[in-house]
Design a protein that fits this description.
The protein is α/β, with parallel strands linked by helices and 330 residues long. It has 2 domains: 24-120, no CATH class; 134-301, Vaccinia Virus protein VP39 (Rossmann fold), CATH 3.40.50. The chain contains 10 helices and 7 strands. It has a 7-stranded mixed β-sheet with strand order 3-2-1-4-5-7-6, with helices on both faces. Helix 3 packs across helix 4 (101-117). Bound molecules: S-adenosylmethionine (SAM). Residues 125, 128, 132, 140, 166-167, 169, 187-190, 200-202, 220-222, 225-226, 257 line the site of S-adenosylmethionine. S-adenosylmethionine is lined by residues 125, 128, 132, 140, 166-167, 169, 187-190, 200-202, 220-222, 225-226, 257.
């Protein structure tokens, strides 16, 4: 008798409690995008709640997250929360001034519970990694290597070069396999490989010598993960502190990747605004490429960061279907 084929379920259940945890390897591109988007929304909501609580006179010690987790209201909400089976039915939170401390804590608990039930940052990273497979267009650093191999960079590549990859999911991407860099430091908030250092770039100790700085920094699909416009600005400023001085034609560059809607469909942001910010930080755009879903830039740094830079959040484009992505510097 012919063996009956067992059809594998798309969602491989990992344990009883977390019934909706899915295995990103078995996901279709649209489903990986849903996971990635949902994580971004949850991160952003979480950040807004914590900022609101910080501004309130709460007795909770917000620097100690365990203190929040000990809160009885938090615990009840966390344990009772069940995630929606379909993404279309996901909770939509409106974090506004009308919410009091208890309501904010309840939403925070639901968000944390959803993140945990969805498998935490690991699932988000696997979904991002899955989107990077060659079958789905390859990893973004392919573009960087293509650009670095052009005649513009020929002389600069003759020296021993090092690179810092912020938000690294794989130590086997094109940055690593190109052999352009003699050494590469790879960091991520949640390391998935022994070759990736688990570190928050915003907490990485500042370099004290030129040797501790980098010829190239890759910041691919990381800025959009940073939950607030102020913090994104801080990240860009911080990047300048880690770049080698561009003296004597040395390579000192930033590879930046953002989802295309950040510059094409934001109420507060576009490519002109990005270039204004980058120019004030000493970056000159050398290459830009807009793919279907993401935009890539290669900036060269001239080492001159303007003083008293100020970029506020201002509406640039109206329309109800726009997103709120923005980068500010104060
Ligand atoms: C969407 S993934 C992008 C990964 C990869 N660079 C790419 O282009 O596909 C974003 C990654 O950035 C990491 N990340 C976000 N903020 C970070 C920070 N402050 N320091 C280090 N890693 C960070 C996250 O942990 C996540 O793994």
């Amino acid at each position: 008798m012919a063996k009956k084929k067992v059809k594998k379920s798309l969602s491989s259940i990992t344990n009883d409690k977390n019934r909706n945890i899915i295995n990103p390897k078995s996901l279709k591109p649209q489903q990986t995008r849903q996971i990635i988007r949902r994580f971004h929304v949850l991160q952003k909501n979480k950040h807004s709640i914590i900022t609101k609580l910080q501004k309130s006179n709460t007795s909770i010690d917000l620097d100690n997250y365990d203190d929040i987790k000990q809160n009885k209201i938090y615990q009840v909400e966390f344990n009772n929360f069940k995630i929606a089976k379909k993404h279309a039915n996901n909770e939509i939170y409106k974090i506004d001034v009308t919410l009091n401390e208890i309501e904010l804590i309840k939403i925070l608990a639901k968000i944390d519970s959803e993140i945990e039930q969805r498998g935490g940052i690991k699932i988000y990273q696997s979904a991002s990694n899955q989107g990077q497979t060659n079958k789905r267009g390859g990893d973004s650093s392919k573009k960087l290597i293509e650009w670095l191999k052009t005649s513009k960079y020929e002389t600069k590549l003759k020296e021993d070069l090092n690179a810092l990859e912020i938000g690294c999911l794989s130590p086997y991407n094109n940055i690593s396999t190109s052999k352009i860099f003699k050494s590469i430091i790879r960091i991520d908030l949640n390391s998935q490989d022994p070759l990736i250092l688990q570190q928050n770039f915003m907490e990485r100790p500042l370099p004290t010598t030129e040797n501790e700085k980098f010829n190239l920094i890759s910041c691919s699909l990381v800025l959009n993960f940073v939950p607030s416009h102020e913090k994104r600005g801080e990240m860009l400023i911080r990047i300048t502190k880690f770049l080698k001085s561009p003296n004597k034609g040395k390579l000192s560059s930033l590879f930046l990747v953002l989802p295309l809607p950040c510059i094409k469909n934001s109420r507060y942001f576009d490519n002109d605004k990005l270039l204004e910010i980058m120019n004030s930080l000493g970056f000159k755009q050398n290459y830009i490429y807009e793919a279907k879903k993401v935009a890539y830039w290669l900036f060269d740094w001239n080492g001159k960061v303007s003083k008293n830079i100020k970029f506020n959040k201002k509406e640039l484009h109206s329309g109800s279907t726009r997103n709120n992505f923005c980068i500010t510097i104060n």
